[in-house]
Amino acid sequence: MVKYVANMHGDEAVGRELLVYLAQYLLNNYGKDERVTKLVNNTDIYLMPSMNPDGFEKSVEGNCNSKGDYSGRENANHVDLNRNFPDQFYKRTNYLQKGGSILDGRQNETVAMMTWIATEPFVLSGNLHGGAVVASYPYDSGSALPCCVESKSPDDELFKYLAHTYADNHPQMRTGNACSHDVFQGGVINGAYWYEVIGGMQDFNYARSNAFEITFELSCCKYPTASNMPKYWRLNKESLIKYLEQAHIGVKGLVRDTNGEPIEAATIIVHGINHNVSSTHRGEYWRLLLPGTYNIHAEAWGYRPSDQINVTVMSGEPSIVNFTLTQDTYDDQGKLKSNEVEEFIRPIDKYGFFHNTEFKHHNYIAMENYLKELNLNYPNITRLYSIGESVKGRQLYVMEVTENPGKHSQDKPEVKYIGNMHGDEVVGREILLLLLKYLCENFETNERVTKILKNVRLHVMPSMNPDGYEIFKEGTIYGVRGRANAKGVDLNRNFPDQYETNDV
Ligand SMILES: [Zn+2]
Q1: ipTM of the complex
Q2: What is the pLDDT of residues 398-411, one digit of tens each?
Q3: Cα–Cα distance measured from residue 136 to residue 138, given in angstroms and rounded to the nearest whole number
Q4: Chosen CATH of 2-248 out of 3.40.630.10, 3.90.330.10, 3.50.50.60, 3.40.50.150
Q5: Is 217 noted as a catalytic residue in this protein?
């Protein structure tokens, strides 16, 4: 998609008429003239003859300069629309932080244009003005001084080429001295070098959309009499068409997922040029580039970045580079892993373990081995200790799991889990063993686990009653064998009770 927008300053009237002529010319010659037919068939052309119709109505034919009060140049609210756009270098940060909207203070015409520019996938744009004869390219703002210092965009070379495309094909513009008061080398100039424009539409296009826009000043006299218009058409006809044809330079293609579905808003990154373009809802993109060799890749949220593609751009037809992006994998909490991390970690199984887990019951010997093995494999985050012995002399093992175990930290609360107090209630015992394994295996690869182990000292006692467990038979549903300890005492009735009195 390409666009020409004219008459933003209501009293600069040449572009307004030229766009009507251009529309007529394209329509009259479509299907007859090969070049026009090709251009119209391959290009979505939008022509806006007047962006400031109110200002135009106040302007006077034959007036070469703006009126003293700028009515005509400005819109009906006396606002210069080419100073009314958000500026990338002069942001109203404080205002926006206090809850203001980026649209506050913008004129109707500006808001309509901002919306149009931001929502339609324009590739190339021309902004037609008057009062000089020159092609002025970005940036318009961002230079240190009000004039005579260039403010270069990352696509400076491309913009120069585009500006020259128009100027070189314009018999007066290319001389650089069409009007008595100005001299422009080759008929082109960096906008900020000429004079700084803050809040202009040209920079807004580049900063906020995929469109590359250049400002074309078409006549020394802003609103020449109608009798001059054939001359202006002759001067600008080739430039107007040639410029539109530049929408087809560089690289274009589609960004799709592995099912062939288009990916919207994928970013196309050209290495060495700090300005990206994005894909449309159909997955299409166009990246205007000068002839040369480039490394390009595509990225999209939720997908792994594509490989870098080395592409040679020739003049004339665009090079086609299609990207297929693979959906990024999600871990068990739905957190996106970056590509880099994923390459270093092993896949986890459906239970969240890296090493296959045998789901079985662990008697005392098996449990002891299990805990010692974990401690051996994860010495930096585990500490195995015993708080004492059972009646039968079995260790009452506790495993501390945390970053830097065994060290007190005032920032880390301590938490404990106790399992298997009743020797015949075994699920908790096994679940705690699995939890220990899960925490150890996922530390530093799983964000949530890592956060827990960095911030909590967790003490896990899989079995408080190992003696009871040993006499219990797997598969038992009813019965009390194994519930108590080796002396037949229910440990969960053996603690001092806060309501206990000596009388009872
Ligand atoms: Zn203007």
Answers
A1: 0.96
A2: 999 999 999 888 88
A3: 7
A4: 3.40.630.10
A5: yes
